[in-house]
Amino acid sequence: MKRLLAVMACLLAGCASAPPLRPPDRVESFCSAETPAGSAVTSILSSVSDRIETSVAYPGAAILRTDVKQNGGVIGHWKSQPLYMPAAARALALAGNYIDVTDVVIDNQLSGNESRLIYVTLATPRGPEHVILRAYDTRNACGAGPPLN
What we know:
The protein has four helices and six strands; from the N terminus they run H-E-H-E-H-E-H-E-E-E. The protein is an alpha+beta fold. The protein has one domain. A six-stranded antiparallel β-sheet has the order 1-3-4-5-6-2, with helices on both faces.
């Protein structure tokens, strides 16, 4: 029993050391009248599945910027935001269980009723990498109003 308690304490201590998600250091807003809340960006980022979407090609920065201008949305920037995603880290051949998010593009277009694709730039030892993730938080990226369903 003592061994079980010791193992559980070690596991809990490991979970407690995960870095918290912080609001972006800077947010570019493409919202009509609302000022986006960094907490909305953080909430959407925290709802991603631990899998890189490969069914869609990364469109590029210029196309994404045009997309958020037309559909409304935000671009969040961090110096470094670790995100616990062991399967994605493995798929990218990264050491450890975290990916390091530096930018995220979130428009107000959903992929069906329950999710959206978000476009993420990661810092890696090889340099910046662009991936697409599926997020399940369907709130308005501009931080106002009900979910976009």
